[in-house]
Amino acid sequence: TCALCSSPSLPCSLHSMFLVALSFAYFAKALSGSYMKSTITQLERRFDIPSYLIGVIDGSFEIGNLLVIAFVSYFGAKLHRPKIIAVGCVLMSIGTFIISNLSMWIYVLLGNVLRGIGETPVQPLGISYIDDFATEENAALYVGCVQTISVVGPVFGYLLGSLCAKIYVDIGFVKMETITITPADARWVGAWWLGYLIAGVITLLSAIPFWFLPRSLPMSGPRGPEKCTPEQTSFIKDSPLLKHKYPADDNTTFIEMAKDFFPTLRTLLGHPVYLIYLCVTIIQLNSLIGMVTYKPKYIEQHFRQSASKANFLMGVINIPAVALGMFSGGLLMKRLKLNIMGAARFAFGTSLIGYFLSLFFFTMSCENAKVAGVTLSYNSVDTVSYDKHSLLTACNSDCLCSASDWDPVCGENDVTYVSPCLAGCTGSTGSGKNTVFSNCSCVGVAGNFTASTGQCPHTDDCDRMFPYFLALSVITSFIISLGGTPGYMFLIRCIKPQLKSLALGFHALATRTLAGIPAPIYFGAIIDTTCLKWGQKRCGGIGACRIYNTTAYRIAYLGLTLSLRTISFIICIPGFILLSRQLKSEERNGIHGALANGGTELEALRKEEFVTSNSDQSQQTSDNSTDRETRL
Q: For 269-367+459-607, CATH number?
């Protein structure tokens, strides 16, 4: 744990307790949030829904935030912040338990909305609480510590997702010997509900410490007035350093706070640097949220990995790089003593380097899987197109096959067929995963017309390309994450201290509304356009996608991600210009203020000297008179 204070033992222990409690709350919410990301494909297959609808479910978390975040951030900063955070953690746990319902996807959506409502106070109230009662030079390091520990949450979230993805969804209710599919199959659904039960318990435990914390803490370090003599206290009472730390106002009524809300919000939105920063982060978060939401799915579809392996790699390789980057960013900001402009340049530079490295992802391509009638015609001519009639050909015309089924088999010719019927198979031996189909007229291998269950394993260069993809992903994640903490501290420092909680809350509101909600939806809708074979629901209608056009998927997914980041870099240019002007203006005002204060103090000193001089002269005159009288 980061060392928190040099104050007496009780305040120091309270500071430490809050830092640990907030870190655990961040860990819990990050674990459940990342677990939701890891179950994207499981939920698609379980409820037979397309990617855009999964995007709606994923974005419902942000809808919950949207409902209450502005008011929680504003009013919560004036109330008992730790207890409000505790209530939020309890609501998050209830929502997580609701998600584990197996019957309908609407319960997943409603539970995620409640999770979003509960998560609302944790970030703005927790960070502002730390920043109020920690020394300014250590605030960035403490925020970096909390955010780094919170990134450990996704590691365990994705690992939990990997574990649950290996377990069949109906384990305990069906005989596993009768299951004919494997975790690598596009129809496999893991025990996604089990992870939500575990995440709900962890989130409920994170609420406990906040019930025992006070409404406010004494300021740590030498900045508090209790560390100063009365003369020092009177001298620094108007210092901007002390204005930065403001205690909660116990005497303010709810009506007074409500009247002050809209004027305060108007003042905040009138700050040009804050608005530019808001626009840049909204666009970059659109890119980031869309990319992270569908990255496991991209690994599954493009590199043909199982959901379990994709989640495991995200948790073990990618997320630790993000954690290390965020912690290193906070440490570098403290060591380099970066000011506002330095923090902005640092965050921009790391993001730009990560952007250029990400361009190399376009070169890491894999060929489409060989599926007869989908990516290949039955005479093995390479044509990536899908038409229901192309599945039916002379070799299976007498079988009366359904073109909407998806029950793939692998022929001896290393070509996947949509179903045994469409492969022209008329017999089978064995059971479960060991079933072998025979007399498959479409397979066409002389003397051997058999096929086995499942898709054919890929034999192209994808296996050799995948490690390079992982290595580049780790490097770019680390570099981009370096700018996370400096960028966040820039947000806190670029506005007036009394607007800090509202600025953090409105920033979270805007990013969730304009990035967290729409990004998964339109990313999912664009990914849906690259689908080559849709599943069929039992009651009719389109289900989940079974196979994608790999090339189109790569271009759509990576192209959209990098296009959004390009736009954000362009907006940064006027942002730096406005920030430079603001800093110059503040510097001039500071100099004028110092001169004015110096002139006032000089005037007072002159008056004091004049009074003292007159007093001395009077005393001297009196002494002279006494001497004269004595001599007389």
A: 1.20.1250.20
